[in-house]
């Protein structure tokens, strides 16, 4: 029989839709409770600013995206411009961008954070278009500007906080673990549940952990590798080392 170290563990995931994280946890025996805490919608201006930026995408040397949602929204516009270099925060984002554009992404940091991407691009130059969410912090744009790039930021999409239903609330607070994959999810959890949370709260990275802790949520584990596999590893660690 396959080893299923998470058998009997109820784990809450909070992304906008189930994905590889959910299936990986389920494959290890977890009872995955998917409670989406954000919705992805068009920018408040309907995408006008994004369309204007992409209409002159040829003026940029780099296009940088921070999520698969941003990747899918800019891909068509960069397909005809092979000279534009592409960068992505995270392997999942890079995979979505490569699939949508039909070419490899030039820079993907080994540690999947905005700060690490800045470090990976240091020493470069030119104009950079950063396509990100409305709630994204300034780490990436400010870091690139400090590194010598000329940076323009455009909102590619917005994250709208979603209030869980009563059945979702009941299942979530009774779980063994909560996984937070973004600062927006941390804010949405705090709005819905306050500081009440399962005994294990795992964050995908330090920025998400900081967002949670600003809202009074105690984060017990932070993934060392800031992607799906890192989250799975940290959840395994939480339960296999627990008394």
Please sum up the structure shown.
By secondary structure, this protein is α/β, with parallel strands linked by helices. It is 39% helix and 20% strand.
Q: Mind telling me the CATH class of the largest domain?
A: Alpha Beta
Helix content: 25-40%
Total DSSP helices? 10
C-alpha Rg (nearest Å): 19 Å
Provide the spatial order of strands within the biggest beta sheet.
2-1-8-9-10
Helix-strand category: alpha/beta
Amino-to-carboxy terminus distance: 24 Å
Spans of at least 5 consecutive residues whose pLDDT stays below 50 are none
Task: Summarize the structure in words.
The protein has 243 residues and is an alpha/beta fold. It has two domains: 10-37 and 162-240, 3-Layer(aba) Sandwich (Rossmann fold), CATH 3.40.50.10090; 48-159, Rossmann fold, CATH 3.40.50. It has ten helices and ten strands. The strands form two sheets. A five-stranded parallel β-sheet has the order 2-1-8-9-10, with helices on both faces. Helix 9 (206-214) links the parallel strand 9 and strand 10 (221-222). The longest helix has 13 residues, at 228-240. It starts with 9 loop residues before the first strand and ends with a helix.
């Amino acid at each position: 029989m396959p080893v299923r170290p998470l058998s009997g563990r109820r784990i809450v995931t909070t992304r906008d839709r189930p994905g590889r994280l959910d299936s990986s946890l389920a494959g290890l025996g977890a009872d995955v409770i998917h409670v989406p805490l954000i919705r992805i919608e068009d920018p408040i201006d309907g995408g006008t600013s994004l369309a204007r930026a992409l209409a002159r995408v040829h003026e940029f040397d780099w296009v940088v995206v921070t999520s698969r949602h941003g990747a899918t929204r800019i891909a068509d516009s960069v397909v005809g411009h092979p000279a534009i270099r592409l960068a992505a925060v995270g392997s999942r984002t890079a995979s979505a961008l490569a699939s949508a554009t039909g070419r490899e992404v030039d820079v993907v940091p080994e540690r999947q954070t905005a700060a690490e991407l800045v470090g990976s691009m240091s020493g470069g130059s030119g104009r950079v278009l950063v396509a990100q969410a409305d709630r994204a912090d300034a780490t990436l744009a400010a870091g690139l500007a400090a590194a010598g790039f000329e940076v323009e930021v455009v909102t590619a999409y917005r994250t709208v906080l979603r209030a869980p239903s009563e059945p979702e609330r009941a299942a979530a607070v009774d779980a063994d673990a909560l996984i937070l994959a973004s600062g927006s999810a941390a804010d949405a959890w705090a709005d819905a549940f306050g500081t009440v949370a399962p005994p294990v709260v795992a964050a995908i990275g330090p920025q998400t952990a900081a967002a949670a802790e600003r809202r009074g949520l105690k984060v017990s584990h932070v993934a060392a590798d800031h992607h799906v596999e890192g989250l799975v590893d940290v959840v395994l660690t939480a339960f296999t080392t627990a008394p």
